[in-house]
Write a structure and sequence with these properties.
Blueprint (H helix, E strand, L loop, with lengths): L4 E6 L2 H23 L2 E5 L2 H13 L9 E5 L1 E3 L9 H10 L9 E2 L12 H16 L9 E4 L15 H4 L5 E4 L9 E4 L1 H4 L4 E6 L5 H8 L17 E7 L10
Parallel strand pairs: 1-10, 2-3, 2-6, 3-5, 6-9, 9-10
Antiparallel strand pairs: 4-8, 7-8
Helix pairs in contact: 1-2, 2-3
The structure holds the ligand O=C1O[C@H](COP(=O)(O)O)[C@@H](O)[C@H](O)[C@H]1O.
The site of the ligand O=C1O[C@H](COP(=O)(O)O)[C@@H](O)[C@H](O)[C@H]1O has 16 residues, from helix 2 and strand 4.
């Protein structure tokens, strides 16, 4: 395990998202104290959305008007579709705190300008990110949240796909996701690595094998989560069941 990678283990998923939510608030407050604003990347999935619900209960001293919200991946579905990660994030938190609408940066909708073309949607999102970075790159996010599937996928980067092999572009379209819906838009591993902090929120026995593979040298093409690292730190936040195959130390 490299120096910037650490593991936190919690009793269950509820404890995990409670602790992660408190740390998320702390990171945003610290970024705002340092430069007046914060930039975070949200994820979908049980724990990613569970964390947002916990933040809603305990929002701390965050100035919500000065947070930029981006998404790590999106199911390329019509605006308002309940399976969109962004819709779930709104229900869990964003509709309940005083965000600045111009600082919400959802990925394009499946029924909008780019309908039927997740690749074009990915190019558009990449331009949006570059515009916010003020360069050809993308912002250095304060934290990028990630869930992980049982086969090791993060964002919409599935094992042995072009998307997980992408070495240059920060955002790509996916047309053959093994987990429905088939069409998605996702930050790539180079995109994830622009974040200062990457946090993987993983719970459940069905994920234990992929967790231990990712932390013991699996190739990202086989276990995409293995390639998800932050420029400053990477934290695996696990419940006991997901951590079951890791050595006690
Ligand atoms: O499809 C997706 O799945 C992952 C993992 O979800 P989980 O419920 O197994 O934690 C999620 O992080 C990603 O954003 C989403 O599009």
């Amino acid at each position: 395990m490299s120096d910037n990678v650490s593991v936190q283990t919690y009793g269950d998923s509820e404890e995990l998202v409670t602790a992660a939510a408190a740390q998320f608030v702390d990171v945003i407050v610290a970024a705002q104290a340092e430069r007046g604003e914060a930039a975070v990347v949200l994820t979908g999935g049980g724990n990613g959305i569970g964390l947002l619900r916990k933040v809603r209960e305990n929002p701390g001293a965050v100035d919500w008007s000065k947070v930029d919200f981006y998404w790590g991946d999106e199911r390329f579905l019509p605006r308002g579709h309940p399976d969109r990660n962004e819709v779930q994030a709104h229900e869990a938190l964003l509709d309940h705190v005083p965000v600045t609408p111009a600082r919400l940066h959802p990925m394009p909708y499946g029924d909008g300008l780019y309908a039927g073309d997740p690749d074009a949607a990915a190019v558009a999102y990449s331009h949006l990110l570059s515009a916010h970075a003020g360069s050809n790159s993308i912002p250095e996010f304060d934290v990028h949240l990630l869930g992980m599937g049982g086969e090791g996928h993060v964002n919409s980067l599935f094992p042995d796909t072009d998307a997980v092999r992408e070495g240059k572009r920060f955002v790509v379209g996916v047309t053959d996701s093994p987990k429905p819906p088939a069409q998605r838009v996702t930050l790539t591993l180079p995109g994830v690595r622009r974040a200062k902090r990457v946090w993987l929120l993983v719970a459940g026995a069905d994920k234990a094998e992929a967790v231990s593979a990712a932390l013991t040298g699996a190739r990202p093409v086989d276990i995409p989560a293995a390639g998800a690292v932050g420029s400053e730190s990477t934290i695996w936040m696990l419940d006991k069941a997901a951590a079951a195959n890791l050595p006690a130390s």
